[in-house]
Every structure is written in C-alpha cells, then in structure tokens.
C-alpha cells in the first residue's frame, strides 16, 4: 500500500487510528517516528490518533506536532 492509498482508505470522518509501538526504539529510528507524525498531520484531514502515551514509539510519534 502506498501513502496515497493509505490516505484514501483511512482518512474519512470518524476515522480513529490506534497507535501501537515499542517502548524501546533504536536511535536510528527515533527521528523517523517524529517525521511520520508530522507528515500524517500535514496530509490528513480527519484521522484521529489514539495513543496510550507510553514512553518510546508513542511519545516519539507525537513529538513536534503542531
């Protein structure tokens, strides 16, 4: 599935995406998770992301989102 297909499939009113990740994230992957969160905020309109606010992947995904 490419990014546009993901958006077309899941970005609709009422869409909820449950985040599930690791508490220990390799240093080389940390910036990628931050960037993923930023890209999704920029290109989605309706998706709502639900997180357990756990340290690690959840925390990184939510960083620097404005």
The percent range for helix content is 40-55%
Per DSSP E runs of 2 or more residues, the count of β-strands stands at 2
How is the largest sheet built, in terms of strand order?
Answer: 1-2
In sequence order, what are the helices and strands, one letter per element?
A: HEHEH
Q: List unreliable stretches of 5+ residues.
A: none
What is the residue-mean pLDDT, rounded to a whole number?
85
Count of helical regions: 3
Rg (CA only): 12 Å
How many structural domains in the coordinates?
A: 1
Largest sheet: 2 strands, parallel
Strand content: 5-15%
**N→C terminal distance:** 27 Å
Shape: globular
Query: Structural class, from secondary structure content?
Result: mainly alpha
Overview of this structure, please?
There is one protein chain. The chain has 66 residues and is mostly helical. It contains 3 helices and 2 strands. The longest helix is centred in the middle third of the chain and has 17 residues, at 27-43. The model has no long low-confidence stretch (mean pLDDT 85).
Quick synopsis:
This protein is mainly alpha-helical. The chain has 3 helices and 2 strands; from the N terminus they run H-E-H-E-H.
Mind sketching the topology for me?
Blueprint: H1 3-10, E1 16-18, H2 27-43, E2 48-50, H3 57-62
Parallel strand pairs: 1-2
């Amino acid at each position: 599935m490419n990014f546009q297909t993901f958006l077309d499939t899941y970005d609709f009113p009422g869409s909820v995406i449950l985040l599930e990740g690791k508490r220990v994230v390799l240093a080389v992957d940390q910036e990628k998770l931050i960037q993923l969160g930023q890209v999704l905020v920029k290109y989605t309109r309706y998706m709502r992301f639900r997180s357990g606010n756990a340290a690690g992947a959840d925390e990184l995904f939510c960083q620097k989102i404005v």
